[in-house]
Every structure is written in structure tokens, then in C-alpha cells.
Specification:
461 residues, 8-stranded antiparallel sheet, 15 helices, 5-stranded antiparallel sheet, alpha+beta
Length: 461
């Protein structure tokens, strides 16, 4: 016997856009975070326009069935994971780049557009969309907005919210909120657009975004520096900040990451056997400005004790050097499956975080590699464990939480770009405190009084 809500959804969207076969819906039930619980959805729906989204929201509200909004499923916090009996609302068919306005350097885009496709599209107009999560070749703009995603370029260009001018959002009663602006400046009313960015689908469903674009940067020049201690590398990062330099990218790799990348690439990165940290930096300023920036960066690294400091303007050589950073997670799969954490600490305390991860690695008896965005302090300690060992998985979970504890103790935050989702709810409470949590709940109850959207994600009511 057909479920009445499913029948209603099919009337609005058509049979093909409402999936109920568990062999199919299971594929939409979770994201990429293995620690997060997931349930069995009643249905998975794929509307193709905002009216379809409104119809789904209104029908689910009438039947009091929760909605979990979802993009491509590339998230790492469980924020898009289904709960039993919910409707998973997939936004990937809202995939139009509505407008590219070269004169005002902005674009209007739907949530199902893939990040890399959007970047390539605006590049043809001599423009640049900065947010670049590691999964940018398959993650979608809507998911980036919902989690306030970051990436390697954050040190210079900021996270997703820094590019958002306005949003179109379907609210819990099915109405459409249009908030924000198309102008460079604008301070009329509350900044509601930023409220929805990073809300992880708990307040509404984003169906369109107006985003700011930047002029296409110059081709990058690249610097690599090797250090025999993480403290020296950390001091170099702190010096870069104090000097007021803003590279377009500045990444750090610890010894475990370096060895994994070298083994995977079957190459020697030119580091000594006792290399403990590698810094990779780029400047996209171009020409003489880039040369001056990298010359100052190189001198800072040398002054801080770098065994190797090398800069190149050759694009292919730069890509080859940066490849070592980009392949780390893949390289770690040689040793088992990985569980990546996401914390952010003050840039002066990066070395202390790496030292803390080394201690945790010894305590739990598992390999932990640390890579991250040194320019903004956003680190990704990655724990490796045997896929068929429940005991090692339990130790990995212990290490995951221990890393969060270290980050908070250093004055940091439990997430720099992946979000809270279903794995860090108790840590959000620890970080923001009782008053902060109360305000979160009040906002949620004001916008979603029936707890329709993604209940149990980020925090419980």
C-alpha cells in the first residue's frame, strides 16, 4: 500500500523524481564521514526547480515528516545523513548558472552546480570564484554554502561566506525568502544571508545564491621549504603573518604526510631523512610582485632554520610540488582507511597541535598524519586504521575526539570548514557554551518551529 506522503510527492514531482527502492535510497543516506550515524529514508526526492522544492517542503510539513537537504554527498560531518523515516531532498537537479554579470563581477547560481564547473564557467569571462574545497571536482555549490566550505585558497580569499552576496531560501512554511543584495555595499536589516550559510540545512533549503567574483589571478609561483622541526615550521608561519604577507596558498605537511606522499608518488621530495615539516606556498600576484613575495617568504623560512627553501615560477614544477600535498589522503590508503578531522587553531600554535597529534598517535597506537592550511590555521589530522578491525576503529574514534580536545585547549575551534553535522554536536556545545547554544535553539525554533529541517544535526532541541 502506497504511503500517502509518497503519493503526494509523486503527484507534485512525477514518479521518476521520487525514489523509494531501498537499493537506490541507501546510496543517498549518508555522506563521506564514517563516524556519523545514518538512518533509512522514507523517500529520496529530486526536484528540478524551486517550485518543486516548495511542494516537497509543504507536503512534508503537512505530514510532519522531517527533511534532510543534500547535495553531492561529499561532506565530512554527517550533516546530510538521513534519519529513519525522513525525506532526503536532493538538490543536484537545480544545476543552472543563471547569470554571470561581468560588469558587476557577480554570478547567480543554483545549488546543484558542481564547484569546478562553476569556476571553469566564470573563468571564461576572466573571473574567479575563490572557494575551492578539496572535493571541488564533484561537490556542489549548495553543499558548500550549507557547510560554509573552505579550501586551499582561504588564506587570501576566505571561506564560502566571504563570497556570498545573497540567497534564495525555501523556509519551513514553503515560502521563499530572498535575502542579500547585488551591490558591493549594503547594510539594510539583519545579515540573513550569512545566517543561512553554514547552517547545514537546519534552517531552510537554499535554492539560489548570488556570489561575488574576483578578477582572474595570475598563474601561481610556488615555494617549498623543508624543516627539521615542526616548531621551526610553525615559527615561519607566524613570521609570515607578522610580516603582513598574504600568499594565495600556504600549506603544511608533517613527517608522516611527507613519507606517505613520497611512497605513493615514488619520488623524493628533496627533503632530508630527518625532515619533520614541509611548507608549500604560492603567490598569484604575478610578475615582479610575486617574485618579491616569494623572496620574502623564502628568506623567512631560511631565517627560521629551513634546510631547504626553493621557489619556482615554472607552472608545471609548481603543480608537481603541490601534488605532494594533494595526494596525501590517497597515499594514506596504502596503510588502511582514513578518518580525517578538521580543527582550526591560532596560527602561532600550529606546531603545538602537530605535537599533540604525535602524542595521541602514540597513545592510541595508530598512524596520524597532519596536513592543513597553515595560512589560516585550519588543520586536518588524519587517522589511519584497519578497515576490518572494530577495535582499531574504536581507537580511531578516541583519537578523533582527543584531537578536538587539543584544538580547544589551544584556543581553537572544532571545525574550520567541514561543519558540525552529526559527529561534533557535543563539541559545539563545549565550544559555544550554554548561552550560545540557547541562542542557536531560539533561532532554529523561530525559523523552523516544527523541527522539519535536518533534526538532530548540529544540536538537539
Amino acid at each position: 500500500m502506497s504511503n500517502p506522503l509518497v503519493t503526494r510527492l509523486r503527484e507534485h514531482l512525477g514518479t521518476a523524481a521520487v525514489l523509494t527502492d531501498t537499493d537506490v535510497t541507501d546510496a543517498y543516506s549518508r555522506d563521506m564521514m564514517p563516524l556519523a550515524d545514518s538512518g533509512k529514508p522514507l523517500a529520496v526526492v529530486l526536484p528540478s526547480d524551486v517550485e518543486g522544492v516548495q511542494a516537497v517542503v509543504k507536503a512534508c510539513a503537512e505530514f510532519e515528516v522531517p527533511i534532510v537537504p543534500r547535495g553531492a554527498g561529499s561532506g565530512l560531518s554527517g550533516a546530510a545523513n538521513a534519519i529513519d523515516g525522513c525525506v532526503v531532498l536532493v538538490l543536484t537537479k537545480l544545476d543552472q548558472i543563471v547569470e554571470i554579470d561581468e560588469g558587476n563581477r557577480l554570478a547567480v547560481v543554483q545549488p546543484g552546480v558542481v564547484n569546478l564547473d562553476f569556476r571553469n564557467a566564470v573563468e571564461k569571462h576572466g573571473l574567479f570564484y575563490p572557494p575551492d574545497p578539496s572535493s571541488y571536482d564533484w561537490c556542489t555549490i549548495g553543499g558548500n554554502l550549507s557547510t560554509n566550505a573552505g579550501g586551499l585558497c582561504c588564506v587570501k580569499y576566505g571561506v564560502t561566506t566571504d563570497s556570498v552576496l545573497g540567497l534564495e531560501v525555501v523556509l519551513a512554511d514553503g515560502s521563499v525568502l530572498k535575502t542579500g543584495r547585488r551591490t558591493v555595499k549594503g547594510v539594510a536589516g539583519y545579515d540573513l544571508a550569512r545566517l543561512f550559510v553554514g547552517s547545514e540545512g537546519t534552517l531552510g533549503v537554499i535554492t539560489q545564491a548570488t556570489v561575488a567574483l574576483k578578477p582572474l589571478p595570475q598563474l601561481p609561483s610556488t615555494l617549498v621549504a623543508a624543516f627539521n622541526s615542526t616548531e621551526a615550521a610553525g615559527e615561519a608561519v607566524a613570521r609570515v603573518v607578522r610580516e603582513g604577507l598574504v600568499p594565495s596558498l600556504m600549506e603544511i605537511m608533517d613527517a608522516t604526510s611527507i613519507k606517505a606522499a613520497e611512497a605513493y608518488l615514488k619520488t623524493d621530495l628533496g627533503t632530508s631523512a630527518d625532515c619533520k615539516a614541509l611548507l608549500l606556498a604560492q603567490s598569484d600576484s604575478g610578475g615582479e610582485v610575486a617574485r618579491r613575495e616569494l623572496a620574502v617568504l623564502e628568506q623567512i623560512c631560511v631565517d627560521c632554520g629551513a634546510d631547504l627553501a626553493y621557489a619556482t615560477e615554472d607552472l608545471e614544477e609548481g603543480k608537481m610540488l603541490l601534488q605532494a600535498r594533494r595526494v596525501v589522503l590517497t597515499a594514506l590508503e596504502m596503510y588502511g582507511v582514513w578518518l580525517t578531522d578538521d580543527v582550526c587553531v591560532p596560527r602561532t600554535r600550529i606546531a603545538e597541535l602537530i605535537a599533540g597529534c604525535e602524542r595521541i598517535s602514540e597513545e592510541v597506537g595508530l598512524r596520524i598524519a597532519v596536513v592543513g592550511h597553515a595560512g589560516d590555521g585550519n588543520m586536518h589530522p588524519t587517522i589511519v586504521y584497519a578497515p576490518d578491525s572494530e577495535e582499531e576503529f574504536a581507537r580511531a574514534r578516541t583519537a578523533f575526539d582527543a584531537i578536538l580536545d587539543v584544538a580547544l585547549s589551544l584556543g581553537g575551534t572544532v571545525t574550520g570548514e567541514h561543519g558540525i553535522g552529526r559527529i561534533k554536536r557535543e563539541w559545539l556545545a563545549k565550544e559555544i557554551g550554554e548561552v550560545g547554544l540557547r541562542v542557536h535553539r531560539q533561532i532554529k525554533q523561530a525559523l523552523d518551529p516544527g523541527n522539519l529541517f535536518n533534526p538532530g544535526s548540529m544540536f538537539s532541541l
